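User: Show me sequence and structure for the first protein, then do the same for the second.

Assistant: Starting with the first protein.
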Amino acid sequence: MNRAAIRYAKAVLSLATDQKSAEAVNSDMKSIVNAIAGSEDLNQMLQSPVVKSSDKKAVLTKVFKDANASTMNLIDTLIDNKRLALLNDVASSYNTLFDRLRDSQIAKVTTAVPLTEDLKLKVMAKVKELTGKEAEVKNIIDESILGGFILRVGDIQYNASIANKLDKLKREFTFN
């Protein structure tokens, strides 16, 4: 992650915490990350040195019209400092810092089919047991794992997928 992006994220988090709007800004930052990930045009526009700053600001103001004042101030600051290309990294860094501040984390669970609410609660309990922290569960669907699940929380990964078990069996038979 870009060091400048982390510094901007820390500054915005500090300001938002002082203004009691850290939760709202976190929501805005998630929206920014999702919007940029979901739109190649938006990403290219932000990265382009050819598009004028005023045009970038006009687009961002329309796209994020319901954003918190702190979020809009961040966008203005990035434009003024000619660092708007960092917006995605700043938003992502903010989310990470906010989760650390709340002593929370994201547990990515890859499954072949969508998780039920019951399974989601069991995963959250398991993550709490393993790490001692609360976690937000993000379900990723990947039919290639065939069944079972892959759990990833921070640096910890637990692979209980059918594809992984089959691969282990295959390796055992080829080496014997």
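Switching to the second protein now.
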Amino acid sequence: MDLEVSPSLTIPAAELNWRFSRSSGPGGQHVNTTDSRAELMWNVTGSATLTDEQRSLLLKRLGRKLVGGTITVTASEERSQLRNREIAMAKLADLIKAGLVPESVRRASKPTRGSARRHRVAKELRSATKQQRRRPAAE
């Protein structure tokens, strides 16, 4: 099953690797006998679906979550392996979307009149305090 991240980006199922293990989450003793925990792995560096720009952006932004160029997402919230697979795919899609969001450009703003006035008053108070600490001038 392909992973649709956005209308312009779909990751083919062939690039996704799954691993299942026993979950420590909900399910009681039944959880000890079924592999309901799902791990979804996707190799960002080896993906053919990404452009070079997208790849460099993801490597830069998700760098701490990548191990050897591969991102791993786990899900063990539900008792069902199928449901955990769906959750893992949603988590991966959200991570990729967040990594590909364009950076917003910060525009510098002027300080408000009130903040400029408070700044001046604070400077005058500091100046007066420091003047009081000085030795009196010898005449």
